[in-house]
Amino acid sequence: MQIKQIGIFIVIFLASAQLKAQTVDLFAEESNKKVKDIVTSTFKSTRIVNGQSIENVGAGVLDFRISHRFGAISQGGYNLFGLDQATMRIGLDYGVIPRLTVGIGRSTYEKQYDAFLKFKILQQQTGEKNIPVGISYVGSTILKTIKDASTTYTPYTTDRLSFAHQILIASKINDYLSIQLSPTVVHYNLVDSTNIPNDFKSLGISSRLRVSKRVNITSEYYIRFDKLAGYYNPLSIGVDIETGGHVFQLHVSNSKGMTERTFINETTGSWMDGDLCFGFNIVRAFSIRKPKELRSIKW
Amino acid sequence: MKNLSIVLAVLVLGISLQTNAQKVFATKTGQLFFNATGSIVKIVAVNNQVDSKFVDATGQIIFGVLIKGFKFENQLMEDHFNENYMESTQFPKADFKGFIKNIKEINFAKDGKYPIAIEGNLTIHGVTQKVGTAGTLEIAQGKPSIIGEFSVKIKDYGIKGLYIGDKIANEAKINVNCKYQN
Asked: Which fold has domain B22-179?
């Protein structure tokens, strides 16, 4: 009887001793859990030069964007290498949610109005899932309001509309290099004659190369599969310079227009003939709506 | 005799349990506020996904945050924070491993505020530094929470940039607020 009791006693004692040995060591706990890491800053701005990049405006942020394109540098000193002639676009882009950006703009070139929406379908990410590319859709509507010289036909307002649809497929290969492909269809509601198609397909190829923490070199080229006669493929090369609150984009391009219709399909200059134009984009960001994490905090 | 030995057994078990009752308190939703406001612009951010655990018996405590989890008011600022300063692709995490030195002074059974001293290793941007700070541990309805404030000399962690010491303060103020579950 007594032996049995002592037996139980020893068992309990041993059990408790065992418990004692299990000390928790938090430092040894290494979390090998893969965390979802969404790739950011594939491009430095929402535009590469003229065309849309995969970047969206942050949620609640309003971008005020001023873009200038000067005349051809080849004109020489009389027009101060094109600086006398400027076309510009002013625009406002707003981030509704992180995935959705909407924007409006007005270009002096052909007195165009434009409106667009850009939606991020797939985000490039690592961690739980490895997705090497990001995919966005951009749809834009362009209204050309310049008065036509033609008097034989009075166009309706809808005739002046054109639409551009783009799928942006982008990949940030590493911190130094990003590449984007942009299959594009531009639809014209009215073209000059019946033997010209209304839809124009093209493919944009763009890249960003990081030179230093604040300087990036960008390039943008569109191959046109359906061509309007007398126009050239647009090629632009630019430099993105970041300062604390702005991104400055300086570039040379053979196109003067800044809407998809004009810069992809109606680029008048040719690199071979030296019809290059200098241009720049300046963006000022305004925080309209604070991120929800910061709303309730008083600093 | 029989009764005595049962009492003894229970007593031994009780004592051994008491000394071993290592409780781990944990949270995944701790808050961390960051303030590096320099000369002009307000540079503030919050991270609401602080991972923290501590053991009541040993005072061992850890904190971990993802750098990309910091939310700024300004998207551009957030991009610069990640890309140019913290280089968060290369160093995705920051963590602290240390001890609450006076853990024995805390009575977890009694509600109240207890001053605590924390010491340990802070790793930011891949650089580890020894740090120490004071904070408060509060017990409310048996649940502990820790509030603390300390500053981080940005250049001590190999973080470089033109604006540090000008638009960006030399020292960033960090406020911690973690409510633990048991």
From this structure: Lipocalin (2.40.128)
